[in-house]
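Before relying on records like the one below, remember that each one covers exactly one chain. Contacts with other chains, cofactors or solvent are not represented anywhere in the record.
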Amino acid sequence: MQNLRKKFPVLNQCIYANTAATGLLYEDLMEWRQEHDLDYLIGGSTMKVKSFEHMPSIKETLGKFFHCRPENVALVPNFSLGMNLLLEGLPKTQKILLLENDYPSVNWPFETRGFQIEFVKIDESLETNIHKKVKKGNVDVLALSVVQWINGVKVDLEFLKQLKKDFPHLLIIADGTQFCSTEPFNFEESGIDILGASGYKWLLAGYGNAFFLVKDVAKEHFDLKGIGSRSFDEIGATRENISFCQHLQPGHLDSLNFGSLEFSLNFLDTIGINHIADHLTKLSHKAKMEFANLGLLEKAVVERNHHSTIFNIKGNRQLFSKFAQENVVCSQRGDGIRLSFHFYNTENEIDAIVDIIRS
């Protein structure tokens, strides 16, 4: 990973512990984006037509990376927009289970549409809490983030898989924005029915691109209405018979942004997702141990067996200012300070952060 750090110039200026807010731009992608716009400059509409024709290939790249059939991949500008389009087609009679204080783009679209909603507390017994609620038999849809944006609590994917087996009627919708590309993920074999994610964080793809992966069994729950001039660009598609995923992408798609997503997926694939996952596991274990020893983590994090590389530590504005003075880039979230680490971070950087806290 040390050689890869050279591709991220900002790492020469700071300890970047803020991927949970924004992933970094790297030199290879910047060069590709410059070439793309140069082609647009000299090619005009000819270049753009070719770019539109390339969108199915981007779906294929996504499908290969996350193990999903390309026809079940939807390209959207961001997770929030895709989620809202999706829920416009979900009957309001559905009973929804959400997590308390989950990401606003997960919870708010449900809360503003008049669904009957129950909430589960995010603590060390998260999976047990969810199972108890679903077992009552009054839940149609479970919607949650795979990794929580404030404190990094990660739901057990094996639990979701078993939950789906135990309750096949349950529709599971997940936000993977804080998860996708942190470890191998096989969508078809998972318990998740619909997974959406924006690409600007852990996927390092910049802003303006996101995707939704959909299983066939999930489609029967919806009556989607989204439509536009680019909705029936599939062979044989008409206004009356466009596919489920085409309803989620009704307009023109930006070739720069979705090309960036494809480029980054190939970049991550070259590094090796297993290699990335191994490194992040080491960072997670070290950070959790160090922060727990300092008494900076909440019980919900300390007592869980597995965690992401997102941590919310106890800290006031004075500590946050100290981090800024020492060139540690992070975020204030909830009642603390959020630190998040990607493959370009090192264990030495965690040591340096701990030294700052102790000082």
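The radius of gyration is 21 Å.
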